[in-house]
Input
Amino acid sequence: MARSGFRRDHRGIGEILKTQAAPLVNELAEQVRAQAASAIDDDTVEVTVTPYTTDRSAATVTIADPDGMALQARDGVLTRAAAAVGLEVKA
Output
């Protein structure tokens, strides 16, 4: 079989996923945070975004309240917020 002239640059791809994708990831996480916060009918419940980097840029959206897990388990607040901004959540 003939080889094509294409070679994946794993380091280059990794660098793009760590640096250039970060603003997009953080913006989407902020959109999810805003959607979740608006869905929670309590102004005292804080929803936070924590950006981090592993082999790529990522962010965690958290309901920073003792009832946060119940809000997610009962109402799917974070899952619905992610869907509202066009993201798909898979277990």
